[in-house]
Target: DUF1329 domain-containing protein
Amino acid sequence: MKVIALVVSVVSSASAWPVTPADVAKLGKELTAAGAEKDGSKDGQIPAFGGESKPTGSWTFGKSREDFWKYKDEKPLYVIDASNVDKYADKLTPGQIEMIKQVKGYTMPVYPSHRECGIPQNVADNTKEGALKSTIASDGWSLDNAVLPSVPFPVPDSGIQAMWNFLARYQGLGTVYQDIFTYLSPRPGSDQSIAYHSAAIAYYPWGAKGTHNPKENGGLQQGSYYAYSEPAALAGQGTTQRYYFSKDTDSFYYFTGQRRVRRLPSYAYDAPMIGYENQYTIDSPGIFGGNPDRFDWKLVGKKEVYIPYNVFAMQRLNAKISDVTGPHFVNPAFRRYELHRVWEVVGTVKSGVRHSTPKKVIYLDEDSWIAAVGDDYDAQGKIWHVKENDITPQWEIGACILNGYVQNDVISGRYILDMAVVGTGKDIKNVPPDGNDPHLKDSFFTSEGLQAVSSQ
Model:
């Protein structure tokens, strides 16, 4: 028994340090600071890494980002539709193919590829410093040690390491949404959609200047706050959640009828979100969120896939919402696909654990580590949800974030557009590490904080 324990210990230690000193030396050279291949593809369709995106002219917050993007006048190279999908199938996910073949009129406009999702120098420095130190805990899923903000595992050798690169990606100190637009398309046979508006704030305490580790701030990975203003049935209700690097999520909800905050102990994983007609689960926004502990994550490898990229159209603040939301899918005029290299990660629900989608396939952009596309499978092994994140540079923090999320249900025919500011007139406020916002503090993301702000 002692020999077996020793062998397990050795294996665990070996998998905890996937990067060799030789690998670390490649960061910033053959590899980008985030661990992506710096060179482009052999056929030239994917360019070499171009460095951090910069605006043209004198862009300042509040001005249209798209107007200051140097490639704003580009036109699609081609459009993938039902007539030519088989030609491009080797660079599409099974879910994307399903959408094109099953949903009448669904298309994917493909544009020239640009690789300008970078990370600031301090994040690059932390990545290099922490590459030999980052570890997954003995439970197999917690981020036990890392030098943050960084890419904890720039050269991953397991699926859980790649997933933490996504979950702990640099996003500044926080993100403030003055108005998030969310749209749930009508049920089949109906024309009654639901439009949601909410204010939201995300807080990443380890994103502050300097170096931090996952055990600081009580192990808080993210503080999250939502407060609904529409529809009327949800107006005034709000939620605060505290996500951790190594323990269960804390969830609190303010109910207007009771004028009080209640803890929701099971408001995580595949629990249905309040007010979304059982179409949306807690861990769905952004393709995947919350603790990754219910799945075994397998790192399949890299492949080339058409993914949503440089989708500045989703930050057209003066657009008409009605132009964005079609009856069966988001208007392709507000979608942009580019060919990029991605890491393919397959999540399979662990034995003895339940989840409504027992298999997930997630494709992580190699430059930003953002989950770009995801396919959810049901218990019968059929594709259920086809998910996409719109990836776009945000110049004030020197990195890319997701500025829109779409979940297509190929079984019911409904879709959800979420995390969008398009048409709201109020842009995303990305707070840099040395930025200041009165809400970005631990006490705001508590039950007491939710009670105080909701009672105003």
Confidence is low (pLDDT under 50) at residues 1-17. The chain is about 15% helix and 30% strand.
